Amino acid sequence: MKTEDFPKHIQPHLVPEPSGHLIYRCLGCKSEYGIEKLLYTCSQCGQVLLLHDPEFDRLKKIPGKTWQQIFDYRKMLNIPSLKGIYLFHEFIGPVIPLESVIYLGEGHTPVVESNARLQEMAGCKFYFKNDGQNPSASFKDRGMASALSYIQYLIQQGHVSDVLAICASTGDTSAAAALYASYLQGNVKSAVLLPHGKVTPQQLSQPLGSGASVFEIPGVFDDCMKIVEALSENYNVALLNSKNAWRILGQESYSYEIAQAFEYDMTDKVVVVPIGNAGNITAVINGFLKFFETGIIDTLPKIIGVQSEHANPVYKYYLEPDAEKRHFEPVTVRPSVAQAAMIGNPVSMPRVIHLVEEYNKKAGAQHVFVAEVTEQNIMDCQLTANRNGHVACTHGGECLAGLIQARQKGLVGNHETAILDSTAHALKFSGFQGMYFENNFPEAYEVIPDPGLINTTALILPADLEHVPEPGKPLHGESLSFFIHRISEEIAKLLDLQKV
């Protein structure tokens, strides 16, 4: 549709112009910095930075109901830069002109309701938001669309040139970073650091296919992250991990899309997300806070972060009920099927502490919780979900396990509706499914397959078949007829089919 076809009071807002004045603000000492340079931590105290809009109150001048109409009508426009996360331009990156926006098909992933069987198992109504349908098949594309649009803006403004974008990853971040950097080929090169032997072949193929320089490093993700941080501090590189505040800004779109999907009614809603480097949960919190402060939503949903007991530093931090006595301690991670969440020292932990406190205060009660689940829970829930019409990854399984845990602890009522984050496509983690079906998980994973969930192929080859077809050697006549008859007969027997 064209802008002149929309209501007149909406038309001036449909195609946004650059506005606001974004700055980096330190969470620790509150120092502020301009955005003309790529910054990740405060030069004064070393704390992480958040992007802040000092002119944010200008957005409150537009009534919340009008904002809802703007976003709903804007969704009908055929303008590529507004088809993805920048549909929410004023809340994602208001200073970025639309000509700087990179859109590769990210965002607006489907919210799929679970069937009655799964809802009975979970104890409440719930949906999966299937972020595996992003272009690189994970939610990381939301943050990369923001981070690389910002880099393109800096290039166009003449602030940077010949950018090397670099990240540490357990798979999904590297795939997204390499994909979006490749779109800016000629101005941006990319490099990724991966923990050796701890990334699935499917995930490893993605940055290689996008042309990134891929380096495998001994150790785990936390070790890769330390090296990337050292490179960003000492060399002219663009860090693309969630330490990059622009990444967090893009991932806020997840909250905005959920609000829009439920017609901006967040009453009795619960959003369940896995916690890895803690970038996603902080983005989700911040996104809902912005919509709440501008009246677009009038209720803050509950948020439940989920961690495996093999990588649970955030869960352990919040075990202490007294905020004054809490002390964050990194943990040594153990092998996990939720690989992107296998992080013992999340770089966004200071953001978590700051935003959880603010969120609970605005909600008027505790609305952010952290659940812990086992590796067994994760795999069983993933396979069960996918046997009931979903394409959930291991992190989606982690969220379903977390919802069940939260229901059992009374954190979620049976009258509430949950939205679970399936962060990536199930095919990225098909290796773990194979290990489950073949019962060959290494002992360190602590996963014992449930026989009822195991599924394997069956070769149908009756002993009385003298001739079988081969490539280039088809059967004919009586041999073909007998082959069809015997194979059909054996399958019917195995499936207990009745003759018509």
- Counting DSSP H or I runs of 4 or more residues, the number of helices is 17
Mean pLDDT rating: 94
Provide the domain count: 3
Low-confidence stretches: none
In whole angstroms, the N-to-C terminal distance is: 53 Å
Strand content: 5-15%
Number of strands: 13
**What is the ordering of alpha helices and beta strands?**
HEEEHHEHEHEHEHEHEHHEHEHHEHHEHH
The CATH class name of the largest domain reads Alpha Beta
Helix coverage percent: 25-40%
Shape: globular
The third-level CATH topology of the largest domain is Rossmann fold
CATH architecture of the largest domain: 3-Layer(aba) Sandwich
Major pleated sheet = 6 strands, mixed
Major sheet strand order: 4-5-13-10-11-12
Secondary structure class reads alpha/beta
Instruction: Please state the CA-atom Rg, rounded to the nearest Å.
Output: 25 Å
Task: Supply database-style keywords.
single chain, six-stranded mixed beta sheet, Rossmann fold, alpha/beta, 3 domains, 500 residues, four-stranded parallel beta sheet, globular, 13% strand
Report on this structure.
By secondary structure, the chain is of the alpha/beta class. The protein folds into three domains: 111-136 and 252-453, Rossmann fold (3-Layer(aba) Sandwich); 139-247, Rossmann fold (3-Layer(aba) Sandwich); 457-500, no CATH class. 37% of the residues lie in helices and 13% in strands. Strands 4-5-13-10-11-12 form a six-stranded mixed β-sheet, with helices on both faces. Helix 11 (279-293) links the parallel strand 10 (269-274) and strand 11 (302-308). Helix 14 crosses helix 15 (394-408). The protein is globular, with a radius of gyration of 25 Å. 46% of the residues are buried.
